[in-house]
Amino acid sequence: MKIADNFSRLGTENAFVILAKAKKLESEGREIINLGIGQPDFLTPKHIVEAGKKALDDGHHGYTPANGTQELRDGVSRHIKKMYGAEIDSSRVFIAPGGKPSMYFAIMMFGQTGAEIIYPEPGFPIYESVINYSGAKAVPMYLSEKKNFSFNADEVLSLINDKTRLLIINNPQNPTGGLIDKSEIDKLVQGLKKFPEVAIFSDEIYSRQIYDGKKMPSFFYYPELYDRLIVMDGWSKTYAMTGWRLGWSVWPETLIDKVTRMAINSYSCVSAANQVAALAALEGSHDFLDDMMEKFDKRRGLIVDGLNSLPGIKCNNPGGAFYAFPNVSGTGMSGDTFAEKCLYDAGVALVPGTSFGKSCTNFVRFSFANSYENIEKALEKIKKIL
Fold this sequence. Notes:
With 386 residues, the chain is an alpha/beta fold. The radius of gyration is 21 Å and the shape is globular. It is built from twelve helices and twelve strands.
């Protein structure tokens, strides 16, 4: 067999590779604390689960429109209005099985040989992987540890040229937990007026995981960009629904038919019952979210203080998401070596920084979406091997 040459350019997401290694060690009798995978360790709220069950009992088990049910798209439109005051017609809302399809479709829609796409580094590995697969040139927007992994708007704008087709922003960020301040986004949006042909993809999947009383600086606050703006969010992180595979995005009017066509050509539609549960999530009680974020905030303090107390490790305080991205170079180890030693010698699963970009050799990613007690135990185990 001879497969297409471009397949060799397609990467992967190493968090799942680490998860598989951790599961294998567990099957061999080892105790492994998994601080690698990025998913909340909370149960999906009961009212959402019950809505999904009832939907199946009521016969919601057939095909739905490829862009999502009208009821759910209306619900997302109301949610955006409530959160950001933005008037978004539900015809522009696209429901997908998770966030990745929207990323993939956007990058493939704009990526081709001769084009350039700007993406954050450190960054979610799927960005660079799919850009390379599309044939476009992946242009990294480097996020500095010294700036707590925010960006400088002028530096981002300097990367744009006549080949640039798409600019990818992730805020709050995976893997760093960095939160880009609205003032810097204001500067970026002002500068983008000079580049009207460049589309923007704003990955806002961690929009509800923000600390220190700050508000989400969403791109929905910039209606002047709506004709070239794609905003992605979803249910996985906010509602502890990673395995339900549910995401939503908002597209320009000129692109919504095109992304719907891509869905029809790949997975047809999203599970009908899951979409009923997703609407219940948006419109039901959000009291659980306050409790979840209170726990995340305590864990954030524990892991940042704990890592900074270890010899040779420096860790910034993340402003969002549930990740810490410490620099481990002071231990004399690279991030790859450190992560491997933690897994096999301490029984703690982490993701090496190189999973998020070639420039991240000195870093590892910790997910604090695990219990306070497990994080305490993991820090003690790492302290012993250091």
